[in-house]
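Contributing: when you submit paired examples, paste them exactly as shown. First protein:
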Amino acid sequence: MGGDRDHGSHKGYALGAMVDIFSALLSGANYAPWVPPFPAYVPMPAKQPGKGIGHFFGAMRVDAFRPAAEFKRDMDDWINGFRTAATLPGHDRVLVPGDPEREMEQERKKSGIPLLPAVVEDLKQLADKLGVSWIS
């Protein structure tokens, strides 16, 4: 959001704080630097103010704020503003949230989901154990 206060760094800080409050403090999970690390080889933080990693799922009724059709029209305009924005050298386009995920979904549908050989072996062993046919 910006590198210093004059350029809006406080906005990014506030957004990060909201995520931490909604997903960790509200659910009773660990927060801030005490969130357990994802990689198993990284040691757990010494302080554990909550339990585990929290999540937050929220929903809003757009038409409680304004007519949904107007919102959708403005949302399309917002997206178009980013997609048609000038890019930095070395970049071919500006992405909007969800673009990388939509592109990866199309790639996975076309080419499949790559699996590590160790995962494939585990799945084969599980299939054998459960008597499930394995299709390579």
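Second protein:
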Amino acid sequence: MLSVIIPTEGIEQPTVATLAALVPGAAAGIIREVLLVDRSDNSVIERVADVAGCRFLRFEGTRAAALAAGARQSRSPWLMFLRPGAVLDTGWIEETSQFIQGVAASGRPRAGVFRYARSPYADAGFRERVKFLARTIAGPLSDQGLLIARDHYERLGGYAPDARRSEARLLRQVGRSSRTTLRSRIVMV
């Protein structure tokens, strides 16, 4: 039903936190596969993928190119793109299932992003205020994840490997009218 693509940077802790949040989704049967696309030269993420039962893809290039490569390698009709360190609320499984069923029933292409929630452990400094302001004015940022049907993703052209700010470009292409902000929150650890 759903392939999760996580572009990693060879750092274990945030990747493991994200995988731990996805375990209930795998147990519920909503997640078919998780692809860890690693752009580093070390083998840390390869070991994490092996232990967690994920597919591993080593990739050289930009993060957008890694996301595009992960999407090409995935096998499910729905794609979820998450950053390492993204932890989803417990209600994400039911809401994601309802969203997918609703889109399938309506026949209208839609994409979903998760509601951003600041980590209680994060520094509430200037940078965090700027991000909040950007989310308010411009809409969601790429760290809020993206849930999209494969055919809709491909119609939009997916992540352009060579484009600057490819993740933001794809969110703009989806547009406000075709994008739903899900109630489930996403926290970056």
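If you have annotations for the second protein, write them as plain sentences, like these:
The first helix runs from residue 12 to 28.
The longest strand covers residues 179-188.
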